[in-house]
Amino acid sequence: MANLLYQQIEMLSREKHIEPEIVVSAIEDAMVVAARKFYKTEEDLRAKFNQESGQVDVYAVQTVVEEVTDPKKEITLAEAKKKNPAAEVGTEILTTKPTDVLGRIAAQTAKQVILQKVREAERDTIFNEYNGRVGELVTVIVKRSEGPDLIVDMGRTEARLPKREQSKLETYNIGERLRVVIKAVDRAAKGPQVIVSRADASLVQRLFEMEVPEIYDGTVQIRHAAREAGERTKVAVMSRDKDVDPVGACVGMKGMRVQSIIRELRGEKIDIIPYNEETVAFAQKALSPAKVTRVQITDPDNKKLEVIVEDSQLSLAIGKKGQNVRLASKLIGWDIDIKSEEEKRQEIEEQMTALTAPTTPLTSLAGVGAKTIEKMEAAGINSVEKLASMTPEQLMEIPGIGEKMVDKIYQAVNRFYESGSEAPAAGEGAVDAEAAATEGTVEAEVPAAEGTVDAEAPAVEGEGEIAEATETAENAEAAGADVVENVEAAEAAKDTPAGDETHAEVAPAENESEAGAGPAKDEKPE
Predict the structure, then answer these.
(1) How confident is residue 416, by pLDDT bands cut at 50, 70 and 90?
(2) pTM over 0.70, yes/no
(3) How many other C-beta atoms lie within 10 A of the C-beta of residue 321?
(4) CATH 1.10.150.20 boundaries in the chain
(5) What CATH number has the domain spanning 134-199?
(6) Which CATH architecture has domain 276-357?
(7) Which DSSP category does 85 fall into?
(8) pLDDT in tens, 255-287
(9) pLDDT tens-digit profile of 185-195?
(10) What residues form DSSP beta bridges with 146?
(11) What are phi and psi of 191, to 5 degrees?
(12) Residue 48 forms beta bridges with which residues?
């Protein structure tokens, strides 16, 4: 009988892959629980399994002390010596409790405790075994479905294939064999602890390791992989041997290797890309099959790139629903902002227009206080043009500016632009005034110009007069082009018939020239 019980314990241990000692400990704990429930005592109970007799004995444990404080758990030395003459202080005295009176209820309780203990031991064993195998490729059989999730058989235990880890384009049948990767092991899960996946990118990497010997032996390495299960996968590979082409090794002769993986993934597209340490070069390859014109790093701290492609390549670079650029971004680990040549050109033109556009300072607004201007400038509003383009709601978001102040600001802006619309009328008046001033200048400068012409005659004979004539000519030139034109008009008027007044004015000038020539000749001998 004893041998039969222990044989059953060993069989259960092999079936559950746990140690026999764990099952024996579970039986002992179950007997303690059953005895405590039957005797309804608070004594310290202990059970011991006898492999020879197959009997599970239950004992009440008392500790030998000099002074008893808890009679149920302690015993005096004198009483202990009656049961065990060799007893000393600190010795434990065991008192046997009958187990044949426990009954059916106690046996049922013991059974439940044994099953619970064995189940906990089994879960601990599974966790310890599969926790170190995360990322490993295994073959499973679809066993049943629980809602959207699938329960698969791994041989020794069951695993869960959640809906989020299933490929979008795949359907599964009961009894179907699948290749999956172990995604995680959940110790606290009520059902199967092992979580497997058909959608993880590591599944593609494990399949490549099986199909490509160069990857298995380490000659070719898979550096990164990005995947959208059921649709497309991008894999970046590099070779540690310069004589081995990493892309060619993964594709295989006539594409046999990669086609085998595609069949396993049920038609999923796979892009194999050569890895590059330089981010710009890697980004150009990652966006294949699109051809990239140029790549520029816009924000190295936040890892942002700007990619420019030709207009005809824009849709191909973005991909269906943005899939191509999204996978490329995952592959290189940078955010990609993709633009066409036309979009980039328009953006540059807008920037140039913004740089060359005239800006009016806020101080030009009449009726707006300096403190209000400081608040708007602190919010990034530096010109009247930018202020006019903002809505009242945007202005009210600025700290310290309320609804009344917004009305006051808009009134000031309206007055500014209304005064600007009247500027042409004022400009016309300015032109008239300028014309009148110009006419007066012409009349005033004509004699001076004539005097300048007269001064040139004696300048030939004296160097002092030459310097004086030159200075006069420079003053006349500085007076403006209008004066010169009037001088030419005055010279032309000499030839007109009605030029009596002109000759009257020129004659004195000639007399002055002759009178001035005399002294110049007299001074020459000196």
Answers:
(1) confident
(2) no
(3) 9
(4) 360-421
(5) 2.40.50.140
(6) 2-Layer Sandwich (3.30)
(7) T
(8) 999 999 999 998 899 999 999 999 999 999 999
(9) 988 777 788 99
(10) 149
(11) -90, -140
(12) 57
